[in-house]
Amino acid sequence: MRTADQNRELSRTFVEEVLNKRNLKHAEEMLTDDFVEHNPLTPEMGTDKAAATATFQAILDAAPDMKVEIIDLITTPDRIAIRATYSGTDSGTGFGAPMGAPATGKPFSVEGIDVAIVTEDGRFSEHYGLFDVPTMMQQLGLMPAPEGAPPV
């Protein structure tokens, strides 16, 4: 059985390689063939391994300078939970591209939470994630803040 410490290192390496170093080959190696994404960015993106790697590519294309900093990392022998800050500039294809909006050139910094199931061989088989898209879209000027809300 895997240890929580092994999964802590696995998680740190995944974030560093895939999101900070843009090594999508690492993602392809670390996701099981029957991987399931439970929270796709859009329903059209799908929920399988190919869709997950396409999602990583779309995020990295939208913000080529994005960096992810792990704030909290909790691991067990078969699960990981990460709370992280995602920051960068909406400068590549832009996060507004699905709405037909060009990249804004504005910076963003938001939090996300990820929970993943880890297999005995040290790969990810499922992912559940929440990313603060509304706050990011407000920071980029692509969505107004709700009336009376504090500025983001």
Which features does this protein show?
152 residues; alpha+beta; Nuclear Transport Factor 2, Chain: A; 5-stranded mixed sheet; 5 strands; 30% helix
Write the layout of secondary structure elements.
Elements lengths: L3 H17 L3 H7 E7 L11 H14 L4 E9 L3 E11 L17 E12 L5 E8 L1 H7 L13
Parallel strand pairs: 1-5
Antiparallel strand pairs: 2-3, 3-4, 4-5
**Strand portion, in percent?**
25-35%
How helical, in percent, are the residues? Answer: 25-40%
Mean pLDDT across the residues is: 94
Could you give the order of strands across the largest sheet? 1-5-4-3-2
What is the second-level CATH architecture? Roll
Estimated radius of gyration:
16 Å
How many separate domains make up the residues? 1
In the CATH scheme, what's the topology name?
Nuclear Transport Factor 2, Chain: A
Which term fits the overall shape?
A: globular
CATH class: Alpha Beta
Q: Give me the oligomer status.
A: single chain
Give a quick account of the main beta sheet: strands, pairing sense, barrel closure. 5 strands, mixed
How does the helix and strand content classify structurally?
alpha+beta
Write the H/E string, N to C: HHEHEEEEH
Number of helices: 4
Number of strands: 5
Explain this structure to me?
The protein is an alpha+beta fold. Helix content is 30%, strand content 31%. It contains 4 helices and 5 strands. A 5-stranded mixed beta sheet has the order 1-5-4-3-2.
